[in-house]
Amino acid sequence: MHRRAVISGLAVLASASGARADDEKKIYLDYTQKQLDDAYDQSVYAPNARQLLARYAAASADLAGRIGPPREIAYGPKPIERILYYPAKRPGGPLFVFVHGGAWHAGSAANYMFPAEMFLDHGISYAAIDFDGVEATGGLLAPIVDQVCRAALFCARAPARLGAAPRRLVLGAHSSGAHLAGVALTTDWRGVYGAAPDLFTSALLISGMYDMAGPRLSARGAYVRFDDASEAALSAQRHIDRLRTKLLLMTGTRETPEFQRQSRDFAAAVAAAGKPVRLRIGTEYNHFEMMESLANPYAIAGRGALELCRAA
Questions:
Q1: In terms of Cα–Cα distance, which of 208, 147, 217 is closest to 182?
Q2: Are 304 and 210 contained in the same domain?
Q3: Cβ-count burial of 251 within 10 angstroms (0-12 exposed, 13-18 middle, 19+ buried)?
Q4: Residues 5-60: tens digit of each pLDDT
Q5: Residue 170 bridge partners (DSSP)
Q6: Which residues, 6 or more positions from 130, have their beta carbon under 8 angstroms from its beta carbon?
Q7: Which of 78, 190, 198, 241 is the most exposed place for a label (fewest CB within 10 A)?
């Protein structure tokens, strides 16, 4: 009995040791599985996430209540394939086209209209794109990238319908939206859409992801369908040769470590390729505070957006 108890105890210890080893195993860079999952989970690093998301929606609704609801125009046949926009009072100025985040499965353009007031105050039209989440695409990101590309092409070909001048378009995006925008900017525009690759004069990409190796191995891989081909195709950092747009990248010091690294690495890779890029760091900003700063002309994202629009 004593011998069996000893053997049983040793087996339990071995099992526990094996479990700890699995927990401590590095699966990507210097991350364990839990650490990598946390590095792609904003709520772990932004305890005020729900508050800020609610504030985006409330501020957007408040704006609609004060100046009227945004106008709406379709860029495709599906109900969700629409652009919400506020044209500037005086036509012919720049247009800021925004791609929202939401981890590829949440968010709506209607809740990201709150920055429009700042742009309108400076004579800039503002538009936000709506598109599917992965629940509607069977877990695939490529159809969503196509929606963003088609919406961008619509804006570039018919800017007057949105209150803007031709060739004065600036692309803006946040989080997973910045990922989608990055892929769009490195798309083979001539080969796929028969269009010139310089639709936008510049782009502001806030707190994005530009290589899919990490997200694929994280918990996000449970609801997004990745394989080797899609990982490569959806990694803007691997297609910098097709980039024709000046970039302003941003991230905050309170972001997750992966979202900080992604922006640093992408900026370094673009610079190494000899293409125009700047990286700005928001001190003490978390992921959602970076987005909120887009509505403030004196904060990091709002100031950067206005710089790009004035130069357009």
A1: 208
A2: yes
A3: buried
A4: 545 554 444 444 454 555 789 999 999 999 999 999 999 999 999 999 999 999 99
A5: 96, 202
A6: 80, 81, 82, 83, 84, 108, 109, 110
A7: 241
